[in-house]
Amino acid sequence: MTYLSVLSTSKLRKQMSVVKHNILANFLGQGWTGLMALVFLPVYINYLGVEAYGLIGLFTVLQTLLMLLDAGMTPTLNREMARYKSSGVNAQYIRNLLYSLEVICFCVAITVGLVVWGLSGYIVNSWLNIDKLSLDVVHQSFSIMAFIIALRFLEGIYRGSLFGLEKQVWYNSVYSLLATLRYGGAVLILEWVSTSIEAFFIWQAIISLLVVTLLSIKVHNILPKITVALKFSRESLSGVWKFASGMMGITFFTMIFLQADKLLVSKFLPLEEFGYYSLAMTAAAVLYMIVVPVTQAIYPKMVGYITVNNKRGLFSIYHKTTQLVVVLIAPAMMLLYFYGNEVIFLWSGRVDLASEVGPLLSVLALGAFLNSLSYLPYQMQIAHGWTGLVLKINIIVVMALIPVIILIIPEFGALGSAWVWVIANAVYLVALVHFMHRDFMYNEKSQWYSIDLLFPSMGALTVILLSMFAQPKELDGRLDWFVFLFCVYVITVFVAIFFAPFVRHEVSTYFYNIRSKIIK
After folding, report:
1. CB 257 within 8 A of CB 64
2. Distance between CA atoms of 220 and 158, rounded to whole angstroms?
3. Based on the domain organization, do 208 and 280 belong to the same domain?
4. How far apart are CA 21 and CA 25, in angstroms?
5. H or E element: which one contains 181?
6. 18 in Cβ contact with 169 (< 8 Å)
7. Residues 218 and 303 in one domain
8. Cα-Cα-Cα-Cα dihedral of 223, 228, 232, 235, to 10°?
9. What's the pLDDT tens digit per position in 67-111?
10. Contacts of 220 (CB under 8 A, 6+ apart)
11. Which residues, other chains included, contact 512 with Cβ-Cβ below 8 Å and sequence gap of 6+?
């Protein structure tokens, strides 16, 4: 083996070590954040009621929808920071680009806040079907929401920069602490200060301000110092405009695709029913908490491989990551689908809540699973700077989705809307995978469907179906259900690992190394 090959192998191992550390950091950080949300959510409902939680759910929808005004800035910074780190893009260029996008983002954030505040009267009086909350309370809540949404908008550019620079360990460490303050502190506010929904939102605003401040300081400290004064650079913006404009379109239609069902349910059904729907979607979103940490860690590495034209490394990491994602989310989805009522009962301890939310959770978990599978094919596209295919598919799916949901909700309610969303995700996934592999990775498609997706999924499904036949009849309390579902989940994960060659190899190697160290 030559010196250069040894050096190359050493560098590759170092790079993969960074990826593994970033994946682990993302899991721990975002897992902790998700855990905080899931643990404290039933507590919030006990303090505020389901209708008030419906208001929180609407806040989440509005916040997500207004992220489309990001105009592609966050993914653009993520990609450009990754290119800067992997190939040494000019420091002056990257500094000017960040400064230029900061200026734009601050202006848009102020506009977003004012628009939300200005539209609050219409939303409260003409959109929502309020029963128990007073109009004054809801109006005041929307005023605070406007400020929070503006701050959350600003978070995006700094988070995208940190992920592109592969500073995910630092980000997740800090964000985990702030998430604890965000969710746990809200409980203390509701317990000791006020049980009003306004107090809840005020606390969220304080934490969001702290988050933006810390993230901005970190990004500016990481980037190299330059002697030339920063300036608003049209040249820097023009260099990324094509990609950013494509991402703007993708972001717009993706947000509509992901939020249309929730927005329409909030319009046509009572706020309390929307609260149940939001609760089910929050529980189903645990799948995103699993898949997003992996894809966020992998994306900068994909950009790096493309930058240096390493197709072998790119295809390898694509298949390996797909297998890992399926092993992680297929068992969780199937548990939520087949045991939706039991999971909600275990989570909340309330039989009434389980009967309302469980059926919705089962369906929405299936939709979230299909949507999660599209993440890597989507990232393969944008890592190359190819935005046209995803944009076209998004436009077609959204144009069909909205009128169908409007027709379905009056007849079949929230559950009908959930099934429409599942079908839309299935169509989106099949179309994206087919055309992306046909145009760019034709020889990789059969492996993606069979080895990466089908084998581990079928292994997990077999275990879940067998568990339903082997389920003890005397299960009653939350502890009984926890032990049973935990055992089923663990067995399902191990079977999925067995049917995923790369993951099985990695796990076997890990335990072999541990065994070797013990023997020594």
Report:
1. no
2. 9
3. no
4. 6
5. helix 168-192
6. no
7. no
8. -90
9. 555 555 666 777 777 777 666 556 677 777 777 777 877 887 777
10. none
11. none
pLDDT digits (tens, 9 = 90+) for 471-516: 877 767 778 888 888 899 999 999 999 998 888 888 787 777 776 6
Residue with tokens 């989570």: 347
Residue 61 near residue 259, CB atoms below 8 Å: yes
What pTM value is reported for the model?
0.65
- 182, 206, 232 - which closes a domain: 232
The two structure tokens encoding residue 271: 């706020």
pLDDT, one tens digit per residue, over 200-225 is: 888 888 988 998 889 888 888 888 77
Cα torsion 96, 168, 248, 441 to 10°: value is 110
Domain identity same for 61 and 145 = yes
Last residue of a domain, one of 214, 232, 250: 232
Residue numbers of the domain that contains 73: 45-232
Query: 266 near 61, Cβ under 8 Å?
Result: yes
Q: Residue 375: CB partners within 8 Å, gap ≥ 6?
A: 291, 292, 295, 325
Domain check: are 220 and 292 in the same one?
Answer: no
Total domains present in the chain: 2
Q: Find all residues with CB under 8 Å of 166, minimum gap 6, and list them.
A: 18, 22, 82, 85, 300
Q: Is residue 144 part of a domain?
A: yes
* DSSP codes, 109-167: HHHHHHHHHHHHHHIIIII---SSS-HHHHHHHHHHHHHHHHHHHHHHHHHHHHHHTT-
According to DSSP, residue 68 is labeled: G
Same domain for 197 and 275, yes or no, is no
Nearest CA among 499, 63, 60, 44 for reference residue 278 = 60
Q: 159 and 286 share a domain?
A: no
Distance of CA 16 to the CA centre of its chain: 23
The reply to whether 158 falls in a domain is yes
Number of continuous H segments (helices) and E segments (strands) in the chain:
19, 0
The dihedral built from the CA positions of residue 342, 347, 351 and 354, taken in this order, carries a sign that is negative
Same domain, yes or no: 383 and 504: yes
Cα–Cα distance for residue pair 91/79, rounded to 1 Å: 15
- Domain shared by 312 and 201, yes or no: no
Residue 472 lies in a domain: yes
Contacts of 335 (CB under 8 A, 6+ apart): 343, 464, 485, 488, 489, 492
Please name the residues in contact with 57: beta carbons below 8 A apart, sequence gap of 6 or more. Answer: 262, 266, 274, 275, 277, 278, 279, 281, 282
Residue 96 lies in a domain: yes
SS3 339: coil
